[in-house]
Amino acid sequence: EIRIKEHRRYPRGQRGNPNRFQLGLMALFAEQPDALNPRDRERLGKQFQSAYRHYVPPEFLLGFLSQMERGEAGEKFTGSDLRRDFRDWIIERRASDIDHDRGDYPLEIEQGVEKLEERSQVGAAEGDPWA
Q1: Helices 20-28 and 38-53 sit at what angle, rounded to 10 degrees?
Q2: Is the pTM value of this prediction over 0.85?
Q3: 36 touches 21 (CB < 8 A)
Q4: How does residue 115 score in pLDDT terms, banded at 50, 70 and 90?
Q5: What pLDDT is recorded for position 70?
Q6: C-beta of residue 6 within 8 angstroms of C-beta of residue 26
Q7: Pseudo-torsion of CA 85, 86, 87, 91, nearest 10°?
């Protein structure tokens, strides 16, 4: 935010609604705004947000983005931007995510997280060192 203000770069269009990645890109290119046009900044920011919500590790980011660009991704959860083929991965990662600041997730995901957390608590209570 400091870099954005220093270089008098302010989000245009939908005020107050850019995601953290769109703002980050704006801050990175604050000194050279022509290096990344607003359309590409918006597109990349949305792609990064999607990868973040899918818990994509950095080493798989380019592959994930490439699949999304080519339309090779699978079916989405109803009313969500999340892909069904990431269901188990998201549940596993979300169960160990301390912050839970990645937005709302479908009920099916949240129920899976609850079941995984319950199993973990039961295993820990029974002395299972792997729980």
Answers
A1: 130
A2: no
A3: no
A4: very high
A5: 84
A6: no
A7: 170
Q: Which two tokens stand for residue 76?
A: 């989405």
Question: Among residues 73, 82, 112, which one has the least CA distance to residue 95?
Answer: 112
Do 23 and 2 meet the contact criterion of CB atoms below 8 Å apart?
Answer: no
Cα 104 to Cα 22: distance, rounded to the nearest angstrom: 19
Contact indicator for 105, 82 with CB cutoff of 8 Å: yes
Return the structure tokens found at 80. Answer: 């969500």
Q: CA–CA separation, 89 vs 93, rounded Å?
A: 6
More confident residue, 42 or 128: 42
pLDDT of residue 128: 54
Region of 12 on the Ramachandran plot (φ > 0 left; ψ -120 to 50 alpha; else beta): beta
Q: How far apart are alpha carbons 113 and 118 in whole angstroms?
A: 9
